[in-house]
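Let's practice the habit of predicting before peeking. Look at the sequence and jot down your guess about where helices and strands might fall. Then scroll down.
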Amino acid sequence: MKSKKDWAVAVALGVAGALTLSGCVGDIQPTGDTSGTGEPATTLTISRFAGPWADALTEVVKGFTEETGIQVRVDAIDYAQLQQKQTLNMGEKTGEYDVVYVPENWYSQYIAAGYLEALDDNLSDPAITGQYVPTAMDILKGADGLVYGLPDSVQTDLMCYNTDAFAEAGLEIPATWDEMLPVAKHFKDAGTGIAMPARQGTAAADVLITLAQGNGGSVLKPDGSLNLTSPEVVEAATFNQELVKYSVDGSTSWHFDESVKALQFGEAPLGVCLSGLASALEDAAQSKVVGKLAYRPMPYKKAVGGYLLTWNYSVAADSKHKAEAVKLVEWLSGQAAQRAMLEAYPGPVSLRNDLFEDASLGEKYPWIPAIKETLSNSTPPPLSTGSAKFMDAVGAAMNGVFVNGTDPKTALAEAEKQLEGDF
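Done guessing? Here is the structure:
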């Protein structure tokens, strides 16, 4: 799906030049009898998208092999082919995959198709499900109330501020809509402005969903039907339109990566950042503003609001090694492995509550406290099979608002009309 492809691209941008690991993505092959039985060791295969994050996983899972004697093969492929390959293999019950890496908006399809194994009766420690942000766990539950995965990581929209630029201007870092607009106008009048991902596409939809959440609203009603023309959502779109007026020139053709580059090179004193790219902002090899940025939740009107993009581990229902696969999923979602992944690649952040509470991690990775605050009131994107169409339609509507000055309510009503048959 397009929004997840954007995430995969963001992963690569966020770690380019920052992560050096021995070997490359691919197979960790069995090395003979590691179980002491004289038989070849079991090999489990993880299906996930390729990139530096997969490189990190390839190294981290060696710890699982050392502990259990179970070998792990990482089948990392281009994101664009990931869902097709997963559904093909699980649909035909090839048994090729034991563990599949799944974003939040594929779960309804995978569960309905019977591709995933329910974990409730198989976990060695059922209490593990209480270790994660509750909203994230809700995504992983089927209509039957059973849990079909465990969380790995989250990304969300954040605001980034260049503290030197704010000190020089004598301005306080804003938190609310009313505080944000005059600050953005000040910098626009001074020749820069706010870096905004306002191009047609998923980023524009992400920002609207986040702003609506911070206004006490939602793009969907509790029953899953469309809510785009509600007063709270329209008001959020109107604020977004005003904010883009004070954006850096060219922002209406920007996605998250361009917004982050403007921050990296000191071309924008503030801007919207996907949290997984924060590591690039703090990498001296890539950024001119290392140590100069403050990270906060997106501006809000009523309360801090967030947007929940997650990746999760699940056991394939056709796995030939289900017990071992469950063990691997638990291990990957455990504190030690989650910390190791964060240290190897500080991009997308673990959804474990205990790691959010670790002050040492918050000091080392200063965007983590902002993510924690954001997740206190967060929402995922639409989780139905119409999610991709929704994000495209809303992204196009908002770009029309920014570029053509279309009335936000009119633009959102048109998007709602386009989507009626899907929600």
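How did you do? Confidence is low (pLDDT under 50) at residues 9-35.
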